[in-house]
Amino acid sequence: MDTLLEILNDLHPDVDFETCDTLIDDEILDSFDIVSLIAEINNEFDVNISAKDIIPENFNSAQALWALIERLEDEE
Amino acid sequence: MQNHILDYLDQTVRRVPDKLAFGGVSQEDGVTFRQLDDRSRSIGSYLAALGMFRQPVVVFMNRHPNAVVAFLGVLQGGCYYVPIDEEMPRARIDLILQNLHPRAIICDETTLDTARTFDFDGELWLYGDLIQTPADAAALANVRSRTIDTDPVYVFFTSGSTGIPKGVAACHRSLINYIEQLSETLGFNEDTVFANQTPLYFDASLKDIYPTLKCGATAYIVPKSMFKFPMKVLEFLNEHQVNTLCWVVSALTMLSAFGALTELPPKYLHTIAFVGEVFPVKQFNIWKRALPNARFTNLYGPTEGTGVCCYYHVEREFGLDEAIPIGRPFKNTEILLLKDDNTLAAPGEQGEICIRGTAVSLGYINDPERTASSFVQNPLNKSWPELIYRTGDIGRFNKDGDLVFVSRKDFQIKHMGHRIELGEIEANVNMLDEIKSSGCIYDTEKGKIVLFYVGGISEKDLMQALKEKLQRYMLPNTIRQLETMPLTATGKINRVLLKENYLKERKR
Predict the structure, then answer these.
(1) Is A50–B263 a contact, with Cβ atoms under 8 angstroms apart?
(2) What are chain B's domains?
(3) What global pTM score does this model have?
(4) ipTM given for this complex
């Protein structure tokens, strides 16, 4: 989780990712962010986020993203 | 002879009045050619009644078909339009308004409140009111007859290295030339269905808007938020039977990089043109495999060359280490590759890509100095006045006679399809009191803007401050605070060393 927060903080140092759960709803993450985020996560956690995982519910908070990563790690 | 860009609309509205011209998310968002014509003529009549002519009118509207109606309305009134957008930071909008001193800004309900906060003493007009104006056919005809094809159509603002954006103005003749060549090259016709991805405040959107008018085609304006979610985009394309995309590479890559294309193949697509930057061959190959029968074309051209001026149909296999060429100029445009001594580069030799012909735009509005440094007399022509545009891009012709991009002469970069002067980012950083010095580099491989600074401000507060000043796509992706800034022997920021150190750190 810390690594994920580090990646997120690097993208937007001014956002409190531990509490924010409206990353998509409030347009905090844009499409550029999503692309670079997925690339970094895939790389860092050795998972493969695919198109069908790229839905608003999975990206609205760091918690949701972390849940996605854990699910993908289990599937491997 | 056609001498006005709206001549396209005049003809098309007679032929297919009830066809959808511009569509949005829902059916109510759409406008037919008849509605487009009627509403734009209402807006034009409003301008004509005020006696406005050949003046800038700023359009500040939501990304929606109505914004296109407003653009055309300004043209109906004999004026030229300047799109701005909520994505632009306030500081940039203020600079644009200071440059142009427009009489009015056209707003819609979603932007009016924001516009009221601008440092602007002109008028704010509501789109919904303007389209209620009864059309005055005589006044519109009068305005049209006074317009000549060297009058401006629009001004698009682009990044300037000093921190002051440059407003590129182009005239009817250049735009007509562009739309004719582009439509012929890509084979647009009445059956073409576009999905517009590029922001309406960039000239990249001309590719969707004006061929639609010329051919009686249809263009859907895809909501920006959709581009975060590839499956949603593909559903949209299939739902509206979109067959043609003129998109920036990063948007196309979004669909190919995560397997979306194979998950939900776009059923109707047959023409894909990409702009803004070089398409990585790996991603391109995924597209090619998903759509083996589609035609793929690389488009190249700076805003100053009125949209796009070169094309390359990708018809052979490319190795992963190969770059897809810029290709050849459109008909009626010449590319001169000029070496430092202003002579032509021989085949294989490098030179600056310079554009000659009707495609060369009018220049930077209200900025004779910067215009004069890039729009220059053709050094090969000593016999009559002839301006060419020096792009600052270095290229060479390969053995097939195709133009290939090599590098930039300066610190301009292409990031996510956007053209950015690293100097503009630094200039905005340096404006902050806490900053002692700053240097920006671009990590080409990862596609990241990296900012280094020395000063008494945290990385977090610096990012917060920059969000007020810089457009979203210009924001650094990584910020690093330094104790001291590496300098060159002449005392300039040593970007080479910054980059070397950064890459070393990244590898660790």
Answers:
(1) yes
(2) 7-313 (3.40.50.12780), 332-408 (2.30.38.10), 415-507 (3.30.300.30)
(3) 0.91
(4) 0.88
